[in-house]
Design a protein that fits this description.
This protein is α+β, with helices and mostly antiparallel strands and 112 residues long. It has a domain at 47-112. The protein contains 3 helices and 3 strands; from the N terminus they run ββαααβ. It has helices at 40-55, 60-73, 78-91, and strands at residues 2-3, 7-13, 105-111. It has a 3-stranded antiparallel sheet with strand order 1-2-3, with helices on one face. Helix 1 (40-55) packs antiparallel against helix 2. The longest helix has 16 residues, at 40-55. The radius of gyration is 13 Å and the shape is globular.
């Protein structure tokens, strides 16, 4: 569940949803990991982003911004969060709304 000043967003991700973690090019993986089995909150940020991309319920730019915000919310510093944001914005765009995972995501938006 996410909230901003106007809306609450609820994502239900069903078992069977597949993710590849962050779309971090190999060249940048020394700086930012695409997945961290030791940090489930970090991984959840990428799952949320992949769910947004798979469903198409949220515009791609908003999904990318949500990823950056979620990373910052769990304590990732601004430089790393912004670099990850840049990577997914530039290297994951071809996956938007082209995912077999769409059936595993339910999205709801409520006015506050």
């Amino acid at each position: 569940m996410l909230e901003d000043s106007q809306y609450r967003y609820v994502f239900n991700i069903k078992p069977g949803f597949r993710t590849d973690g962050g779309s971090i090019p190999f060249l940048f993986r020394w700086f930012a990991k695409p997945w961290d089995p030791e940090n489930l909150e970090y991984d959840a940020c990428f799952i949320l982003h992949d769910a947004c991309y798979a469903s198409g319920y949220v515009h791609r730019d908003i999904a990318d911004d949500m990823l950056r915000s979620a990373l910052r919310d769990i304590g990732i510093d601004r430089l790393h969060a912004s670099t990850i944001h840049w990577c997914v914005k530039n290297f994951a765009k071809s996956h938007y709304e082209k995912d077999e995972n769409a059936d595993f995501v339910k999205f709801q938006m409520f006015s506050l």
